[in-house]
Design brief:
The protein has about 525 residues and is an alpha/beta fold. It is built from 16 helices and 20 strands. Helix 1 runs parallel beside helix 14 and helix 14 runs parallel beside helix 16. It binds NADP nicotinamide-adenine-dinucleotide phosphate.
C-alpha cells in the first residue's frame, strides 16, 4: 500500500506549482497523477491550430520565483500553445519535478476512508494509491463539451474537438472543413484553418465580440525591461481585480463625452487585448455604458467585413459586451472576406444530423471532409463530476452538487475532508489571469497544510453552514453585474444541457478574494473544523 502525504491531480500550471510547494517548502512526499502523456494541462490538450493565450506572456508566467522568471524568454506578446507547453516543461525540469509525476494516469475514483483518514485514489488502469491530502489541479476548462449530433457514425470524414486535439496534427490542407463554435477557441482556430482549407464553413449559433490581439514579436530589450519591472508588474497584478498588469480605469463611460469616449476606445482597440474591457469603469454594471462599447465594436466589425449579410450575422449580439468571456483575435473578421469562407447562421437553420459526406441543417446540406468542434467545455465542475468522488459516509460529490457546486471559498467542500480544489467553483478562477489565481490558491493551501502539520491536525473540513454562507456571497457579488444577462454563458452552466444554471465563479475580484482568504488564515482558519491526530 503506497501512502503519500499528498496526491495532486493534474500537471498543468497549478499541479506543478503545488508539487514544488509541498515537496520543496514543506518536505512532503507527493505524487502527481496526470492523464496526459506530458505536462501542460490545458496547454497539453488544446493544441489546435492557432491556440494561443489571450493574456500577455509576461503576465502569463509564474511569479513565485524571480530567478525562474528571468531564465525564460518569451518570443511574442501572446504565447502560443507550443511555447507554453515548452515553458511548463522547462519549469518541470528546472525544478526537477518529473520524477514525481505519473503520466497516462487517469483518476477515476477518489474515496475517503474515515477510519484511516486517507484518500484512496483509483486510476483507470486499476492502480491505486493512498494519500492524506488530495489536491485537485484538474483545471477549469478540461472537460470537452461535444454536442450530440445524430448519425455521427454515418459521417465518413474526420471529427475533432479543439480541447482534445491530436498530438500528431491532422492534415487539413486542401480539405472542406466545418467549424462549429465562435467562442475564444473558434475565433482563434477559424483564421488558421481558413489558410489551409479548400473551403471553410463556419457554423455560428451566437456571435461573440472580439477585439484585436495586436500580437508582435518581443525583442531582447522587451525581455530586459520585463525583468527590471518584475516587482512592479507583480504589484499591479496583485492589485487588479482580474490579476492583470494594468490599472482598471476610474473613468465612467457614462460621464465621458462621446468624442473623448471614442478616442479612448480607439486607443484601447489599437493597443489590443483584454485590457479593452477596462477602458471604462462602468461597462460591467451599466447597460447604457456597455452599449457604447458594444456599438463601437459593431462599427469596427462592419468596417472590416465586406459582405453586409455576413457582417450583420457577426454583429447580431444577444448579450452585453464582456458578459461572456470576450475573445481577442488575429484576423478573425478579415477571414470572412476570403471567398472560400462562408458563415452559416445555425440559430435559424439548426444542424439536424451528420450525413455520409457532411452535415445537414434544416435548410441545406454542407459537404465536409473534416468537422471541428470548437464548442467549449463543461467548465469548472465537469472534470470533477466525471470522477466518482466519495467523502464522509460515502456521500457522493455528484449528489452534493446536484443543484450546483457548494464550496467554502472555492477551496473546500463540506463532507470532503482534506480535499483541496485549486481554482475551484466559487473562486475567482476563470475571471482572472489564471496563473495569478493559481499562485494564490497554491500558497494558501500550502500554508494551511503547514499549519495543520505544526498543530498535529489530521483533517480539515468546512462546515455546510460556512459553505452556504460563501455560496450566498458568490451569489450576491454577481447580482449587481451584467454577467447574469448572458443566459447561455458557460460561467452560468448555460452551455450544457441539464447543468444547474448558477453563476459558478466568484465575481468580487481576485484582489478582494485574496484579502478574504488571508483573513481566514490569519484567524487560524476558524471557519474550518480540524481533527487532532491520535
Ligand atoms: P465557448 O466560449 O463555450 O464557445 C463555444 C462555442 O461553441 C460558442 O460559440 C457556442 O455557441 C458554440 N456551441 C456550443 N455548443 C454548441 C452546439 N451544441 N451547437 C452549436 N454551437 C454550439 O468555448 P471556447 O471558445 O472553447 O472558450 C472557452 C473558454 O476557454 C474561453 O471563454 C476562455 O476562457 C478559454 N479560452 C482561452 C483562450 C485563450 O486564452 N487564448 C483560448 C480559447 C479558450 P453559443 O454561444 O450559442 O452557446
Amino acid at each position: 500500500m503506497q501512502i503519500f502525504d499528498a496526491i495532486i491531480i493534474g500537471a498543468g500550471f497549478s499541479g506543478l506549482y503545488q508539487l514544488h510547494s509541498l515537496r520543496d517548502k514543506l518536505g512532503l512526499k507527493v505524487k502527481v497523477l496526470e492523464a496526459g502523456e506530458g505536462v501542460g494541462g490545458t496547454w497539453y490538450w488544446n493544441r489546435y491550430p492557432g491556440a494561443r493565450c489571450d493574456t500577455e506572456s509576461k503576465a502569463y508566467s509564474y511569479y513565485f520565483s524571480k530567478e525562474l522568471y528571468e531564465e525564460w524568454n518569451w518570443s511574442e506578446r501572446y504565447p502560443t500553445q507550443p511555447e507554453i507547453e515548452k515553458y511548463l516543461n522547462f519549469v518541470t525540469d528546472r525544478l526537477n519535478m518529473r520524477k514525481e509525476i505519473q503520466f497516462n494516469a487517469q483518476v477515476t475514483d477518489l474515496i475517503f476512508d474515515e477510519n484511516k483518514h486517507l484518500w484512496r485514489v483509483l486510476l483507470k488502469n486499476k492502480e491505486q494509491y493512498f494519500a492524506k491530502f488530495v489536491i485537485s489541479a484538474v483545471g477549469c476548462l478540461s472537460f470537452a463539451n461535444v454536442p450530440t449530433i445524430p448519425n455521427r457514425d454515418l459521417f465518413s470524414g474526420e471529427v475533432y474537438h479543439t480541447g482534445n486535439w491530436p498530438k500528431k496534427n491532422p492534415t487539413l490542407k486542401g480539405k472542406k472543413i466545418g467549424v462549429i463554435g465562435t467562442g475564444s477557441t473558434g475565433i482563434q482556430v477559424i483564421p488558421e484553418v481558413a489558410k489551409l482549407a479548400k473551403k471553410l464553413t463556419v457554423f455560428q449559433r451566437t456571435p461573440n465580440y472580439s477585439v484585436p490581439a495586436n500580437n508582435y514579436k518581443l525583442t531582447e530589450a522587451d525581455q530586459i525591461r520585463a525583468n527590471e519591472e518584475f516587482n512592479k508588474s507583480k504589484q499591479l497584478m496583485l492589485q487588479h481585480r482580474g490579476g492583470h498588469p494594468w490599472k482598471h480605469s476610474n473613468k465612467a463611460a457614462k460621464k465621458t463625452n462621446s468624442v473623448e469616449r471614442k478616442k479612448l476606445y480607439e486607443k484601447a482597440w489599437d493597443n489590443g487585448g483584454l485590457s479593452f474591457r477596462d477602458t471604462f469603469s462602468d461597462l460591467s454594471v451599466d447597460l447604457e455604458s456597455n452599449n457604447t462599447a458594444s456599438n463601437f465594436i459593431k462599427d469596427k466589425i462592419k468596417s472590416i467585413v465586406h459582405d453586409h449579410r455576413t457582417a450583420d450575422l457577426l454583429t447580431d449580439f444577444d448579450h452585453p459586451f464582456g458578459s461572456k468571456r470576450p475573445p481577442i483575435d488575429t484576423n478573425y473578421y478579415e477571414t470572412f472576406n476570403q471567398k472560400d469562407v462562408e458563415l452559416i447562421n445555425i440559430r435559424n437553420n439548426p444542424i439536424e444530423s451528420f450525413v455520409s459526406n457532411g452535415i445537414k441543417t434544416s435548410k441545406q446540406h454542407y459537404e465536409l471532409d473534416v468537422m471541428i468542434f470548437a464548442t467549449g467545455f463543461d467548465a469548472l465542475t465537469g472534470t470533477l463530476l466525471n470522477m466518482n468522488i466519495e467523502g464522509n459516509n460515502n456521500i457522493k460529490l455528484k449528489n452534493v452538487w446536484k443543484s450546483g457546486p457548494i464550496t467554502n471559498l472555492g477551496l473546500l467542500i463540506p463532507d470532503f475532508p482534506n480535499l483541496f480544489l485549486i481554482t475551484g467553483p466559487g473562486s475567482p478562477a476563470v475571471l482572472t489571469n489564471m496563473p495569478r489565481a493559481i499562485e494564490q490558491h497554491v500558497e494558501w493551501i500550502t500554508e494551511c497544510i503547514h499549519f495543520m502539520i505544526t498543530k498535529n491536525y489530521q483533517t480539515i473540513e468546512t462546515t455546510s453552514k460556512a459553505a452556504d454562507k460563501w455560496g450566498r456571497t458568490v451569489h450576491e457579488t454577481v447580482n449587481d453585474t451584467f454577467f447574469l444577462s448572458a443566459k447561455h454563458s458557460w460561467y452560468l452552466g448555460g452551455n450544457i444541457p441539464n447543468k444547474p444554471k448558477v453563476f459558478i465563479p466568484y465575481a468580487g475580484g481576485l484582489n478582494k478574494y485574496r484579502e478574504l482568504c488571508d483573513m481566514v488564515a490569519l484567524a487560524k482558519y476558524d471557519e474550518f473544523i480540524f481533527t487532532q491526530k491520535k
